[in-house]
């Protein structure tokens, strides 16, 4: 649910500098086309809910409207970042996704991030 809210917030809140929604549902096209902040959307190719069709629709909308959106899909299931769920957790995908999130935030946020992160 957090990824859904993060993506929608990136479309509707002008105060955001960047967003990194993880496997969230995509908003309606009239909302999505308002995306103006650099956004990294993280997905799992084996996700039955935020499935490849939805992710491809997001990619198509980004191209259609010239949205500042990067989509990264891992060979993983929904919630692969959640290390409290061993049945879906994917340590390698989670580590790479987190590295990408930190890179995005370091580039677009004025706040200093801990160097050990």
Mind explaining what this structure looks like?
With 117 residues, the protein is α+β, with helices and mostly antiparallel strands. Helices cover 40% and strands 10% of the residues. The protein is built from four helices and two strands, in the order ααβαβα. It has a two-stranded parallel sheet. It is globular, with a radius of gyration of 14 Å. The two termini are 24 Å apart. The mean pLDDT is 94.
Short summary:
The chain has 117 residues and is of the alpha+beta class. It has helices spanning 2-12, 29-32, 52-65, 91-108; strands at 39-44, 69-74.
Descriptive key words:
alpha+beta, 4 helices, two-stranded parallel ribbon
